[in-house]
Backbone:
């Protein structure tokens, strides 16, 4: 089955991104396909590589990047939500005159159309939020 | 393009959190993609439709007027939970746009007919 996942909450404050990650791993372990994982609302904060949790805690951002690399996943951060919350890639830095980037490896910034497309293309779009 | 039935489920008050505002952005994009879009309003989500938003004091943009514009995007299916209205002392007359008031159970049945449910 083809799945997509929507992550609507930020890391650490809320369980959603942890649960979404565990769900994604389980989906792949069962041999299903993940079409896309989309990050919206504070979920975009899953995509900042500047996250530095204590050493004995899980690194939620790095975990996503690793999962994407190992499984060739499409991790998409909503551009409007990202702009509000300061998640920046090279293109956004130049476009908005910022002096830094912080997008983690494996993520890309794009529009909400990517979420709708995920809903159209996937058998199931599973939402993890509040 | 494939058309699917998308229902956006609005459960949160209009201000205080960003969910309602960002949900509206998803509604407009789904409509631009020519999907079969409907909106359900449950729990505090019914306050999103209430007439007379005055947000100047909290310095947040009011989006009450957007409801009237949804028709231009062919989004006309707005379902409101009767119990949620009643619990808050509201009726359909308190709302900014015409809606279909349904029981929670009937909204549940509509949810079963959807291809995609996005909850906010």
Residues:
């Amino acid at each position: 089955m083809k799945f997509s996942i929507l992550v609507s909450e930020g890391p650490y404050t809320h369980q959603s991104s942890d649960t979404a990650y565990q769900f994604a791993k389980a989906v792949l372990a069962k041999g299903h396909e993940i079409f896309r994982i989309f990050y919206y609302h504070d979920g975009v904060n899953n995509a900042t590589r500047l996250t530095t949790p204590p050493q004995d805690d899980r690194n939620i951002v790095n975990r996503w990047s690793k999962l994407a690399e190992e499984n060739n996943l499409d991790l998409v951060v909503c551009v409007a939500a990202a702009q509000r919350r300061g998640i920046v890639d090279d293109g956004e830095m130049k476009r908005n005159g910022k002096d830094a980037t912080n997008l983690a490896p494996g993520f890309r910034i794009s529009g909400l159309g990517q979420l709708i497309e995920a809903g159209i293309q996937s058998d199931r779009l599973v939402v993890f939020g509040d | 393009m494939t058309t699917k039935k998308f229902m956006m489920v609005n459960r949160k008050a209009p201000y205080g959190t960003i969910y309602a505002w960002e949900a509206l952005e998803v509604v407009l994009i789904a409509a631009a993609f020519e999907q079969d879009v409907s909106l359900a309003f449950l729990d505090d989500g019914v306050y999103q439709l209430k007439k007379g938003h005055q947000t100047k004091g909290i310095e947040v943009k009011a989006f009450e007027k957007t409801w009237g514009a949804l028709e231009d995007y062919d989004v006309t299916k707005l379902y409101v939970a009767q119990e949620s209205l009643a619990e808050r002392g509201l009726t359909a007359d308190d709302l900014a746009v015409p809606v279909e008031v349904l029981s929670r159970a009937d909204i549940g049945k509509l949810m079963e007919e959807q291809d995609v449910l996005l909850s906010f």
Q: What stands out?
A: Helices of chain A lie at 16-29, 60-71, 79-85, 90-96, 113-121. Residues 68 and 106 of chain A are 6 Å apart (CA to CA). Chain A touches chain B through 18 residues (CB under 8 Å). Strands of chain A lie at 2-7, 33-39, 75-78, 107-110, 124-128.
